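A reminder from the course coordinator: this example appears on the midterm review sheet, so study it carefully.

Given structure:
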């Protein structure tokens, strides 16, 4: 696990570098408290083609190994409004390891206690060809509860 910050783009030696990169990127200016790596539910694959609509807050991933398409986070709710585009690394590579960053916020529960809910999500990616790290989409989450989002990376 090594991040090289000497070039124009940060590069990582393996997917674990996203655990450091996504919080460092701090999409939206929010502190990322949790990072969850994407893994294909069908075959366990960890390499994906990624499509996003950063305006709409939408991301889907297609497993390179088995072809399963998964709408990340709450993207399935926005698919009708989204115009997703293929993501490509500056090197031209279109296969990525992915990890979602979650920023949290305090919310007041009806009983007066304070809970924690997801406030912002960001989709981090590491190009498997040259290791370039990037955040390709991020969006606000303005509802609750949000616990289910941790299993929708
Ligand atoms: Zn798969
Ligand atoms: Zn690349």
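Designed residues:
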């Amino acid at each position: 696990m090594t991040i090289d910050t000497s070039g124009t783009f940060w590069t990582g030696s393996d997917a674990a570098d996203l655990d450091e990169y996504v919080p460092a990127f701090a999409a939206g200016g929010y502190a990322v408290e949790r990072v969850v790596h994407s893994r294909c539910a069908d075959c366990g694959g960890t390499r994906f083609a990624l499509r996003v609509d950063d305006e709409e807050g939408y991301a889907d991933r297609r497993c390179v190994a088995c072809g399963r398409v998964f709408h990340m986070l709450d993207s399935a709710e926005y698919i009708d409004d989204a115009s997703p585009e293929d993501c490509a690394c500056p090197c031209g590579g279109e296969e990525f390891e992915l990890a979602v960053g979650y920023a949290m916020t305090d919310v007041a529960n009806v009983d007066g206690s304070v809970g924690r809910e997801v406030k912002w999500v960001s989709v981090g990616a590491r190009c498997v060809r040259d290791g370039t790290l990037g955040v390709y989409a991020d969006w606000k989450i303005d509802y609750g509860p949000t616990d289910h989002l941790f299993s929708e990376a």
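Strands lie at 3-4, 11-12, 32-37, 48-53, 58-63, 69-71, 85-86, 96-108, 114-127, 133-140. The chain has a mean pLDDT of 96.
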